[in-house]
UniProtKB/TrEMBL annotation:
It holds the Pfam family Aldedh. Belongs to the aldehyde dehydrogenase family. The lineage of its organism: Eukaryota, Viridiplantae, Streptophyta, Embryophyta, Tracheophyta. PANTHER family: MALONATE-SEMIALDEHYDE DEHYDROGENASE, METHYLMALONATE-SEMIALDEHYDE DEHYDROGENASE [ACYLATING], MITOCHONDRIAL. PROSITE patterns: ALDEHYDE_DEHYDR_CYS. Residues 3-221 form the Aldehyde dehydrogenase domain. This is methylmalonate-semialdehyde dehydrogenase (CoA acylating). GO terms for biological process: L-valine catabolic process; thymine catabolic process. Its EC number is 1.2.1.27. InterPro entries: Ald_DH/histidinol_DH, Ald_DH_C, Ald_DH_CS_CYS, Ald_DH_N, Aldehyde_DH_dom, MeMal-semiAld_DH. One of its GO terms (cellular component) is mitochondrion. GO terms for molecular function: methylmalonate-semialdehyde dehydrogenase (acylating, NAD) activity. Keywords: NAD, Oxidoreductase. It comes from Aegilops tauschii subsp. strangulata (Goatgrass).
């Protein structure tokens, strides 16, 4: 968001997630290196109080947010009440629709990258693939490619998947996978028991694929 905002002549206050602010700091360093004047891009850290200050401050004229439904609804209502222009992109649920004549190699590569890149945690991650005509002709090769991905620490050069962000996130994912299996979905690939040597207590989950998922299942919703 900030390159667009500053190009249009605005200053910008960025509050990254308190759980992973590192990338925002790297972007700020690059912006300074590129010659962005001091005070144009500003980064603040914190949780609820900082968010509320951004929503309330009269000097801030617009707010943009990407994240969870709960946080987004709070930000939208509070910032709007202060007369700000607000956009909130919340609770993304991204689908791929695969037609029977799709190029197999390109499609499988795209599904693997979109589904498992960044351990599936980015807002544009692909959580659902809809195969027109059924998924079974695709499953064996999909599982083969997903199983070949290397799960390791995020700083390891060979890592395809790093850990998820917290123990709570790992527990939630594992419960949703189990609920899918309990509700009748086929667990085609189960990555819950993966162990990374020297990081046995890490929040790692390997690639996981559920098939025959229905729209009323908690794992889908």
């Amino acid at each position: 968001m900030f390159p667009i905002a500053v190009t249009c002549g605005n200053t910008f206050v960025l509050k990254p997630s308190e759980k992973d602010p590192g990338a925002a700091m790297m972007l700020a360093e690059l912006a300074m290196e590129a010659g962005l004047p001091k005070g144009v891009l500003n980064i603040v850290h914190g949780t609820h109080d900082v968010v509320n200050n951004i929503c309330d401050d009269e000097a801030i004229k617009a707010v943009s947010f990407v994240g969870s439904n709960t946080a987004g609804m709070h930000i939208y209502s509070r910032a709007s009440a202060s007369g700000k222009r607000v956009q909130c992109n919340m609770g993304a649920k991204n689908h791929a629709i695969i037609l029977p004549d799709a190029d197999r190699d390109a499609t499988l590569n795209a599904l693997i990258a979109a589904g498992f890149g960044a351990a599936g945690q980015r807002c544009m991650a692909l959580s659902t693939a809809v195969f027109v005509g059924g998924s079974e002709p695709w499953e064996d090769e999909l599982v083969k490619r997903a199983s070949s991905l290397v799960v390791n620490t995020g700083t390891a050069n060979d890592a395809d998947l790093g850990p998820v962000i917290s123990r709570q996130a790992k527990d939630r994912i594992c419960k949703l996978v189990q609920s899918g299996a309990d509700s009748g979905a086929r667990l085609v690939l189960d990555g819950r028991e993966i162990v990374v040597p020297q990081f046995e207590d890490g929040n790692f989950i390997g690639p996981t694929v559920l098939a025959d998922v229905k729209g009323d299942m908690k794992c889908y919703q």
